[in-house]
Write a structure and sequence with these properties.
110 residues; mainly beta; OB fold (Dihydrolipoamide Acetyltransferase, E2P); five-stranded mixed β-barrel; 1 helix; 6 strands; globular; single-stranded DNA binding; Single-stranded DNA-binding protein
Length: 110
């Protein structure tokens, strides 16, 4: 049952080209977003489509794969865990971020 704790799986389209940072020693970090779509029919029988945006972060070998193969608009599947962090912005206000730390990525579509 431990394998199911804090597990996120998403399939969506990449919203922007990943931002790649390389640190001392060559370790890489990839930051990017994906959009997931869901549709349903409302009370009037009309189709309604909702888009949710997800902030993703990947490290190491996963970031290297993303750097090579993932571009804006590409459909991908990811698996990872939900993480939360906070920081103080330039005005001294505390900001909170929720993101998915990606462990695996699968390229879909063309």
């Amino acid at each position: 049952m431990n394998a199911l704790r804090n597990k996120v799986q998403l399939i969506g389209h990449v919203g922007n080209d990943p931002e790649i940072k390389t640190f001392d020693g060559g370790k890489k970090l990839a930051n990017f977003t994906i959009a997931t779509n869901e549709s349903y029919k409302n009370d009037k029988g009309e189709k309604v489509e909702e888009t949710q945006w997800h902030k993703l972060v990947a490290w190491g070998k996963t970031a290297e794969i993303i750097e090579k193969y993932v571009t804006k608009g590409k459909e991908i599947a990811i698996e990872g865990k939900l993480t939360h962090r906070s920081y103080d912005d330039k005005n001294g206000e505390k900001r909170y971020i929720t993101e998915v730390a990606v462990n695996d990525v699968l390229l879909l579509g063309k």
